[in-house]
Amino acid sequence: MTESRTHALLPGADLHLLKSTIADDEFEVSVTVLRIEVESRKRLPVVYVLDANLQFAMAAQTAWLMIFARELPEMIIVGIGHPVGSLLADPSVAQKYSEARRRHMEPIPVDPRQGQGAPDFLGFIRDELIPFVESTYPADAADRTLFGRSLGGLFSLYVLFHYPEMFIRYIAGSPSLSGHGGVIHHHEREFATGRTSLPVKLFMSVASLEHHRVAVVEEMVETLKSRNYAGFDLTYDKFDGETHVSVVGHLLS
Predict the structure, then answer these.
(1) Is this prediction's pTM over 0.85?
(2) Mind giving me the DSSP string for the chain?
(3) How does pLDDT run across 203-221, given as a tens digit for each residue?
(4) pLDDT per residue over 162-190, tens digit each?
C-alpha cells in the first residue's frame, strides 16, 4: 500500500493568490459559487468574508445549507485571507496570521513602513479584488455584502465610514471598537458631518458574555441610530449566553 497526503480544500471552491500593488502584499482569495438551480445563468449577489483563513469554510457551508433549504438566495462567497499556511496543521501559523490581519485591517498602521494598513486594504478590495471577482465570476455588481467580525467587524465599519457605496450590506459582528485609541469613533464623527442619507443595511451584533464589548458596541449602535440617515437600515442583536468565539455560527446564519 502506498500513501500520500495533501491539504484538503473545500470542494467546489477556487483558490487564487492575488498580488496587490496597492497593499503591497499577496492575498489568498477563496471563491465558491453556490447554485442549486441547474443551467442557471443569472448574476448572483456576492458576500465578501474577511478573515477567510478562519471563516470561509464555515461561511460557505452555512450559506449552502440555507440556500438548499430555500432560506437564502443563491450567492457567491469570496473569502479574503492570507497565504500563511494551514491554521489547523501548523500551530506556528497562528502568529503569522495574526500579524497579517492586524497589518491590513487596523485603522492605524501597525508599522508605517509596511503600508497604510486599512486604507491600503480598502483600496485592494475596491480597485483590485472586486474588479477581479466581477470579471471572473457571474457576480451582480449591484449586490455586494461585506462580512466581518472582531477586527474584521471593525474594518467593516471602517469601510462603511470611508466608502459606503462599495457594498449595500455591512455585517459587523463583535467589532473591536475600543482599541486603537477609539479612532473608529473619530472616523464616524467625520463621516456624519454634513451627511443626511446612507442607503445601506448594517447588521451589528455582540455576544452577551463579551462583557467588555457590550457597552461600547451598543453605544455605537445608538450613535448611528441618532444620525437619522435617510435610507439607513440598522439591525442590532445581542446573542445571549454566547462568547466571542461561540457566537460565530449564530452570526453567520
Answers:
(1) yes
(2) ----------TTEEEEEEEETTTTEEEEEEEEEE--STT----EEEEEESSHHHHHHHHHHHHHHHHHTTSS--EEEEEEE--S--TTT-TTHHHHHHHHHHHHH-SS-S-GGG--SHHHHHHHIIIIIHHHHHHHS-EEEEEEEEEEETHHHHHHHHHHHH-GGG-SEEEEES---SSGGGHHHHHHHHHHTT--B---EEEEEEETT-HHHHHHHHHHHHHHHHT--BT-EEEEEEETT--TTTTHHHHH-
(3) 999 999 999 899 999 999 9
(4) 999 999 999 999 999 987 667 899 999 99
